[in-house]
From TrEMBL:
Protein name: ROK family protein
Pfam family, one: ROK
Family of the protein in this entry: Belongs to the ROK (NagC/XylR) family.
Amino acid sequence: MARESTLRFGAQTDEMTSLLRIVNMVRTGEAMTRPEIGRVTGLGRGVVTQRIDHAIEMGYLADGEFGPSSGGRAPRTLRFRGDAGRIVVCALGALHIHVGVALLDGDVIDQEHTAWDISRGPAETLDKALSMIDDVLARTPDHPVWGIGVGVPGPVDFESGRPVAPPIMPGWNGFDVRRPFERRYAAPVWVDNDVNLLTFGERARRGEDHLDLIYCKMGSGIGAGLLSNGRIHRGANGAAGDIGHVRVRDSELPCRCGKVGCLEAVAGGWALIRDAEAEIAAGATGSLADAIAEGKELTPERIAVASENGDALAIRLVQRSARIVGESIAALVNMFNPSVIVIGGAMAGAGELLLAEVRQRVYELSLPLATRDLKIAQSVNDIREPLRGGIEMVREQLFEVTFPRWFADGRPTVERALIEAS
């Protein structure tokens, strides 16, 4: 009796394993018809038909269009049910909230964006974000949320989903960001820093599976996302790539993190605003000085645009920032040996003026072998990039990391996707 039970359990396990493989093959495009699935898996025609019928009953697959004929009857293709659920992304920035909803195959179907100061604290900020998500989901009702990605502008312990001493996020240290989303939507939630989301977006845009890339965000602060052989490198505690608080030689400028001499305190967007205001107060003229005289607020974006338009003060500030950031990137290049460096964030709006200085310092200070095939480019600077990146992060966690745990349930749950993963 025990032996029969063991055999039945083994057969069920084998069936579920092959079923999972077939769903993933269709989802990734590895095999799209029943004959293709049979050839790739080695399963018999009857078994393939049985597995596919089961996958259709579970809601994972559906019949698609007829494929090309190889001489006989044209085979019907299969498609992954990307419409079976929704992925939600909440990208929190220093001065904005951007939320979006996507199909399971990654297509963004709706989004909302609003100005917001992250320093207003977690309770007020997340209440606002949840309200925005509710509004977007109300426009696509009757579809369950399968996963949620949250990006925050600071260091995150990815395993716990909690920010760790984020310099520009007072009140967020150790806050359980996952819990409000889990309670509202009963779906697994993953929290990452905003630069990693941008890095995921760049990977998806380039469509390269084994890419080695550094994404350097130069905005109000400075941070880097590291992509190694196509996978995000977060480090042991999620702190990998936090170059904004690397010490700059001979600098004693105070940083928002409480230390002195950090890269951000010398070359970040907020530091450029500080220096621009000081020089204007001392008599500097130009478009930035005119903006202040007109009561306009200086921002990293305004400084970047002014440098492109020939403002002497803005040009000097941007070039100095780029040189110093280029030195830190050069150290990463020697250690990490990427094939691509992407410069994004508000300061990237300065274009070639900034890129030229970064390139010069990187090529000057890095090893020849590390820069032999290196490309340094500007990001597409699309406001939707954090959403796309967050979607890719959630899709990776759902379908590559946790899929076998919740596959038999037909949709992910918080318990199977997160608790069993810890």
